[in-house]
Amino acid sequence: MDQDRPPVEADLSPGQVAGGWRAGDPAGARKFAGLGGLPLEYGGTLPDVTIAYETWGRLNAAADNAVLICHALTGDAHVVGPAGPGQPTPGWWDGLIPTYLNPDDWFVVAANVLGGCQGSTGPSSQAPDGQAWGSRFPAITIRDQVAAEASLADQLGIDRWAAVIGGSMGGMRALEWPLLYPDRVATSVVLASTGYATAEQIAWCAPQLAAIESDPHWFGGDYYATGKAPVAGLGIARRIAHVTYRSEYELATRFGRDPQGDGRFAVESYLDHHATKLAQRFDAGSYVVLTRAMNSHDVGRDRGGLSEALSGLKARLVVAAVDSDRLYPPRLSAELAEASTGPLHLVKSPYGHDGFLLELDQVGHLIAEALIR
């Protein structure tokens, strides 16, 4: 069992962003696309938007072999590949490429989401006045994130995706893509996600946001030039979230009530470890912005409700739930499948919500089958 202690406040150089990539850091495998100004759903325009992305394979002459992978809340564009300079963690879906998505056949694209902290424009990015956006970063929605990805697709010469694939928050974007751009998606694969944020999901987010915003080093979101960062609050938020990502059965069988030599229960050490890891690679400001974007998610908004929105879907919708998921329970995926008159695929896993990442064989085969042409 990992013996990592809880994260402690780090003294940072002025302007340094705790746990996120910033301009001047090694680019790693990232590429960057300048999108210009991006109109936002809630009004106004976000200027000088940059999206960081990675690609695998090549776009063919017909430009019909492009696949977009949409990451979850604390993911990024680094789907597969090793850790290295500027890239603190290995790929979050290692094994998907090339085993189930062969770059000899597919041009795979993954973008760090708008509002993120791994190269795309977010709260830690430089605003036009040269200072970090911080609390001035506007409220964004899942639809804004998809609009940014569509602008990236334009720059890459992709008129239509063979598939858009995503789980959790990425599944929200995979679902919005064919609704916002019905002629630009052939197949949408939505894993362990939902058509709208439920009251319980919003409730789980509330103490996470409160933990970050109550940290004395939050400074109203304007901590970037203070030499401090709200890593303690971010760590608490991660502990809360991580419990919802795993199943009660897994926690019970893996940890039980086993104590450790330092007096903590093993499960406490486990949560501390994940809190420390996230604080070292992720920005609290992005966590707040992206969590609020997830709370805004509702594909039925201004479309007559979920059933009406999905009834006329042009793209083929492939929906899969994890049978032990307590954060995005299978009933929510069943609503999507029923509204789009398609089958519901069930991923069997003891791990809970994270099963969409951990059950690579089941999910990989589902994705490979969805891409058969």
From TrEMBL:
InterPro entries recorded: AB_hydrolase_1, AB_hydrolase_fold, HAT_MetX-like
Pfam family, one: Abhydrolase_1
Alphabetized SUPFAM superfamilies for the sequence: alpha/beta-Hydrolases
Enzyme Commission identifier(s): 2.3.1.31
Ranges of residues in domain AB hydrolase-1: 65-359
Keywords per UniProt: Acyltransferase, Amino-acid biosynthesis, Cytoplasm, Methionine biosynthesis, Transferase
Cell location: Cytoplasm
Catalytic activity as recorded in UniProt: L-homoserine + acetyl-CoA = O-acetyl-L-homoserine + CoA
Pathway recorded for this protein: Amino-acid biosynthesis; L-methionine biosynthesis via de novo pathway; O-acetyl-L-homoserine from L-homoserine: step 1/1
Location of the region described as Disordered in the Swiss-Prot/TrEMBL record: 1-23
Protein residues bound to substrate: R238, D354
Chief site of localization: cytoplasm
Active site: S168, D325, H353
EC main group: transferase
Family (UniProt): Belongs to the AB hydrolase superfamily. MetX family.
Self-association state and partner proteins as the record states: Homodimer.
PANTHER family in UniProt: HOMOSERINE O-ACETYLTRANSFERASE
Physiological role: Transfers an acetyl group from acetyl-CoA to L-homoserine, forming acetyl-L-homoserine.
Protein name, UniProt field: Homoserine O-acetyltransferase
Lineage of source species: Bacteria, Bacillati, Actinomycetota, Actinomycetes, Propionibacteriales
